[in-house]
Amino acid sequence: MNHSLNEIEAMCKRAARGAGLSWGLAEEAAKGTRWLSAFGFPGAELLAALLELNDRLPPADFAPSALAGVWTAPSGRMSPLIAGAALSDCAVQLMDAGRIEMERVCVPLLLVPFAAGAALRLETPVAVEWAGARLATDGRQLCAQGAPDAYTAMLAEKVAFTAPAEMTERREPVLRGSAPAEAWNRLGVLAHRTYAPATEASRLRGAGAGLSDND
Fold it and tell me: What are phi and psi of 95, to 5 degrees?
């Protein structure tokens, strides 16, 4: 299914919130999915998989335990959304050290939009690498090298961020993205949790005249 980037962002924001993320993190997840979709990646599918995996579980279990040395999470698997948000806060640290490493990150492709944000902040390209994949971005364009199955990996044992990074074969973003109907429906199930339940009063308001006689 083909969707506008606005549609993708709106659906993903609702779904992320429905899965228990804060509104702030849900917004970051939605913007990141939109960014990936603009470059032809299956962002919506990957976000749906991640949200289902961590559905309503405590975010602290999947957050970096510390932002020094190699980043790890208490549960043994790290959320790319929480880790990515932390990376944005550590952009200067990345530039100073030249490298930040994380262990056992779920759906590593979802980290790349956060690298794009760091690149814009640092005004220099940032690269993200894990087994079989290397992606570099200056925030506006993207260079991707790797196999399709590496891009869609559900778990990366190690992810490394480096800056400054070299970019070749740059991709330009497009205005629409795609998501299979099955993935879109899965996001819709999560998004539906954010809708207020219908009441008798709201049903009557939605029915037009309700019980009134307008004749």
Answer: -65, -40
Q: What pTM was computed for the model?
A: 0.89
Tell me how far CA of residue 65 lies from CA of 50, 51, 118, 169, in angstroms.
20, 21, 21, 36
Q: Helix, strand, or coil here: 71?
A: strand
Per DSSP (E only), the strands in the chain are 2-4, 99-106, 126-130, 133-137, 142-146, 155-162, 176-178
What single DSSP character describes residue 165?
A: -
| Digit-coded pLDDT (tens) for 64-123 | 999 999 999 999 999 999 999 999 999 999 999 999 999 999 999 999 999 999 999 999
Q: How far is CA 137 from CA 128, 171, 203, in A?
A: 9, 10, 49
What is the Cα 185 distance to its own chain's centre? 17
Q: Hey, what are 80's tokens?
A: 């790319």
